[in-house]
Design brief:
The chain is an alpha/beta fold. The chain is 38% helix and 16% strand.
């Protein structure tokens, strides 16, 4: 029986005995933006939850529902009944991936906060690489598909690789970002870096990744790029023609914001997790 047709209680079977309470101040927060993901969000939640419990991490898992028109929210709520680590955040309608990530991260309680795509193109097991980089002194650790190309278990079609590399070249030339991969949806932040960067973020669509990295560099945070395993998912909703053009517009917006001093504003109220409750 396929995943789409299996009832929610059956998919949650086996987790009841693993239920563990979340401390008030988790060490890690994992944010998962989701839009019309009812067909695969359960598989993702099962993978993430099983892994963090096996590692013994105190973790909260935040699913941000971006105005889905399917049963995404209902699926997450049902799953969370047997998984206190999981909570659902609802956007006020459909606003985009950048909005969703920001909404989840600014509500996160962990001392280290990361976000990952709902398809787990980078396996959740790779999160340990990001967390290790932060433990070693990085403020921000970003997954990279291009530092070690042999780690790509299912590569993008050639046309997507071409557009991706072109966009990366533009970010290098226009924004001065020297990262091999700005777009990988697998990034982790210290609490201070996350609160500062995402309070300053303005881009709500796909172009938010270069913006948050631009802000991070401008604010003096140490950003480390980490090679991760990665598999392309053919179900990705990104259109490299339509969304690619919008992302180029976003780069212009970022440069304009920088000229206006938008990213130099003083950030108030960055609190540790222990101060949030």
């Amino acid at each position: 029986m396929g995943l789409e047709s299996r009832p929610i209680p059956e998919l949650c079977e086996g987790l009841e005995g693993l239920v563990a309470g979340v401390t008030q101040h988790p060490q890690y927060s994992i944010v998962i933006p989701a839009y019309n993901e009812s067909a695969r969000i359960l598989r993702t939640l099962r993978s993430v939850l099983s892994y963090v419990r096996a590692r013994g991490w105190t973790t909260e898992i935040i699913v941000v529902n971006d105005g889905s028109r399917d049963a995404t929210a209902e699926v997450v709520r049902e799953f969370a009944r047997n998984a206190p680590e999981v909570r659902l955040v609802e956007n006020p309608g459909n606003h985009g991936k950048g909005y969703s990530v920001r909404n989840g991260i600014l509500q996160a309680l962990g001392e280290v906060v990361m976000f990952t795509d709902s398809d787990l193109s980078a396996p959740i097991e790779e999160a340990e690489l990001l967390f290790s980089a932060i433990a070693a002194g990085a403020d921000i650790a970003i997954g990279s598909r291009w530092l070690e190309r042999g780690r790509q278990t299912h590569r993008q079609p050639l046309y997507r690789q071409f557009f991706g590399r072109c966009f990366n070249a533009v970010t290098r030339a226009v924004m001065g970002l020297r990262f091999a991969d700005t777009q990988c949806g697998f990034k982790a932040f210290t609490r201070d870096a996350a609160q500062t960067v995402f309070q300053l973020q303005t881009i709500e669509g796909w172009g938010f990744d270069p913006e948050i990295l631009f802000i991070a560099v401008k604010r003096g945070y140490r950003v480390v790029e980490v090679p991760v395993s990665w598999a392309h998912d053919e179900r990705t909703r990104m259109s490299y023609l339509k969304d690619g053009m919008r992302m180029l517009e976003d780069i212009g917006t970022i440069r304009w914001n920088a000229l206006r001093g938008r990213y130099s504003k003083k950030i108030e109220g960055v609190r540790s997790a222990s101060q949030t409750r």
